[in-house]
Amino acid sequence: xxxxxxxxxxxxxxxxxxxxxxxxxxxxxxxxxxxxxxxxxxxxxxxxxxxxxxxxxxxxxxxxxxxxxxxxxxxxxxxxxxxxxxxxxxxxxxxxxxxxxxxxxxxxxxxxxxxxxxxxxxxxxxxxxxxxxxxxxxxxxxxxxxxxxxxxxxxxxxxxxxxxxxxxxxxxxxxxxxxxxxxxxxxxxxxxxxxxxxxxxxxxxxxxxxxxxxxxxxxxxxxxxxxxxxxxxxxxxxxxxxxxxxxxxxxxxxxxxxxxxxxxxxxxxxxxxxxxxxxxxxxxxxxxxxxxxxxx
Length: 296
What we know:
There is one protein chain. By secondary structure, this protein is mainly β. The protein contains no helices and 16 strands. The strands form six sheets. Strands 13-14-16-15 form a four-stranded antiparallel beta sheet, with no helix packed on it. Strands 4-6-5 form a three-stranded antiparallel beta sheet, with no helix packed on it. Strands 2-3 form a two-stranded antiparallel ribbon. The chain is elongated and about 55 Å long.
């Protein structure tokens, strides 16, 4: 059986993803863009755009098994904040909601209750108060996510919290639950196709928490260059563990997704291999491949 590829997702500051030892980056306090990822316990870590933890493969319960992907937004040691509420239970006093925030001013690492001060609906544009204050003008049950700097303001999209539990999360059609940064982040993020890269401006389609989700890019690192978080890489690529990449000068490098029905790879020395283990690809993703060393 082909060795499983490891894609690591990590989020730092705000949110970031990573493949195999990689992770997404955080956003600085007050930064407008963020991403999400996980720490390998089912959550993804984030850097400046979202967070959550993710697993690398199948668990015997029908979950997709991938080739070479590890998920996480931020290194484990970056977490450790004490939460005052549960984002799944939303157990804050009336008129408040449980949101992720950075207890030390850096990465999202905990949850706290903040007042619901707006009435923005899901999908509406919102303004974000920063990773420490963590306030926004979205309504109850929503959080300002996918934040970017627009004329000096942190502007994002009102995004629903996942419902259910961490072991059995639930989201609406076309979205899936991104759990990151030791569970401080749990949001229903848009699903996508890595071959089409069908996400909005400032976003790319990365593998996170058992699904392909639209996540903010942080550095647009080019193909073949070292990366540390999933959302470090330019759209159309992911942060892959060095052992499956040619001439990688780091623990992981940006590798290209490819179409198994038209197996073309832009990087010399690689071939298009199935992203998922045989029989494990979710419906609609059967042709998703990744360009790696032959036999890896």
